Amino acid sequence: MGISVANATVKIVGTKLIQSGPLLITHWGLSGPAILKLSAWGARELADKNYDFTVLLNWLPEFNEQQLSEQFQKIRFDIAAQKIANKNPFGLPQRLWEFILESSGVKTDIRWADLPAKEQNKLIKNLCAAEFNVKGKTTFKEEFVTAGGIKLNEIDHNTMMSKVVPNIFFAGEILDVDGVTGGFNFQHAWTSGFIAAKNVASLPV
């Protein structure tokens, strides 16, 4: 936990949902902009799956498995005599590199030249397509963005008043607005709240 990667690609198996960006490993799992954006864009689809799905994570998005396999041949030639645990050629955080090696069954004292084919293939897969299973969502009510709500085509955007029921105004996340992380939901709440309040105040008493 506490490790961050500047750029990773996260894909949800069986969907078109994919996102790249900074990724953070926390005490409870994966977070960071890539995960938060993926959660936002896929909110309805993930709910339909009852939050039971598999994530594929590419720690090296500049490579696919075939490209990385070819790169491994060059690496094994260039740094053949060095221990694989001590020489991480991809710039990943050391603790993450050691975790990936362990998950791939690679002995930490082995040299690059002596890496068996079976372990090499597993290592390449875990670098480019590591699988993580998601079963359910947090039970701690930590969600901070909602999806769904009042349909936007039922609102006058100039006043935030309902087109269905006159003199009822809506603002914030009760509307079907779900922005990406970074303050966009706050901005929408403040702006729509200001517009709604201004127009409520202008109503005849």
Question: What would you say this structure looks like, in words?
Answer:
The protein is α+β, with helices and mostly antiparallel strands and 205 residues long. The chain folds into three domains: 3-60, no CATH class; 66-126, Helicase, Ruva Protein, domain 3, CATH 1.10.8; 152-201, no CATH class. Helix content is 34%, strand content 18%. It has helices at 33-41, 43-48, 65-78, 94-103, 117-128, 184-201; strands at residues 3-12, 18-25, 30-31, 52-58, 130-135, 155-156, 161-162. The strands form two sheets. It has a five-stranded antiparallel β-sheet with strand order 3-2-1-4-5. The protein has a two-stranded antiparallel sheet with strand order 6-7. The radius of gyration is 24 Å and the shape is elongated. 16% of the residues are buried. The mean pLDDT is 90.
| Low-confidence regions | none
Q: Tell me the count of domains.
A: 3
CATH architectural grouping of the largest domain: Orthogonal Bundle
Strand content: 15-25%
Round the Cα radius of gyration to an integer and report it.
24 Å
Per CATH, what is the topology of the largest domain?
Answer: Helicase, Ruva Protein, domain 3
N/C terminus separation: 57 Å
Order of helices and strands: EEEHHEHHHEEEH
Q: Globular, elongated, flat, extended or rod-shaped: what is the shape?
A: elongated
Q: Helicity range of the residues?
A: 25-40%
Q: What is the average per-residue confidence, as pLDDT, rounded to a whole number?
A: 90
Under the CATH scheme, which class of the largest domain? Mainly Alpha
Number of DSSP helical runs? 6
User: How many β-strand stretches?
Assistant: 7
